[in-house]
């Protein structure tokens, strides 16, 4: 894989490296079951990364990625709420598009 971001995401040497981690818990008074595509700890930060296979028009890659971040933000933040009950470290969330090396990330804040 030539994509540096992809190599970093898939590196199994990260602390607490997990693929397809199943989590269940209560979020906003509802029982939630999910499966995290990828999670690990890097530099004292918990990462939760969701892989996506969506395609985009080459002319609007940045616009596409920004729209996808809005589209999936609630889903990933729900994952982070579950994880924060088990891990007190800061959490960052990421969307990764291996087909074209697309990436968006943000810090989770449950404030």
What can you see in these coordinates?
Strands 1-2-3-4-5 form a 5-stranded mixed beta sheet, sandwiched between helices. The chain has a single domain (4-107), classed as Lambda Exonuclease, Chain A (Alpha-Beta Complex), CATH 3.90.320. It is built from 2 helices and 5 strands; from the N terminus they run H-E-E-E-H-E-E. With 111 residues, it is α+β, with helices and mostly antiparallel strands.
Describe, in short, the structure shown.
The protein has 111 residues and is α+β, with helices and mostly antiparallel strands.
Task: Name a few traits of the molecule.
alpha+beta; 2 helices; 111 residues; five-stranded mixed sheet
Radius of gyration: 14 Å
Strand-pairing-aware structural class: alpha+beta
Number of strands: 5
Number of helices: 2
Order of helices and strands: HEEEHEE
- What is the residue-averaged pLDDT? 92
How many structural domains? 1
Helix content: 25-40%
Sheet having the most strands: 5 strands, mixed
- N-to-C CA distance: 37 Å
CATH class term: Alpha Beta
Strand order of the biggest β-sheet: 1-2-3-4-5
If classified by CATH, what would the architecture be? Alpha-Beta Complex
Query: Remind me, CATH topology?
Result: Lambda Exonuclease, Chain A
């Amino acid at each position: 894989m030539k994509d540096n971001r992809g190599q970093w995401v898939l590196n199994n040497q990260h602390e607490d490296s997990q693929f397809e981690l199943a989590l269940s818990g209560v979020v906003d008074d509802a029982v939630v079951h999910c499966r995290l595509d990828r999670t690990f700890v890097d530099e004292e930060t918990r990462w939760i990364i969701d892989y996506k296979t969506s395609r985009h028009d080459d002319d609007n890659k940045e616009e596409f990625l920004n729209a996808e971040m809005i589209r999936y933000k609630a889903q990933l933040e729900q994952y982070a709420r579950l994880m924060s009950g088990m891990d007190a470290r800061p959490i960052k969330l990421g969307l990764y598009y291996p087909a074209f090396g697309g990436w968006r990330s943000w810090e989770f804040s449950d404030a």
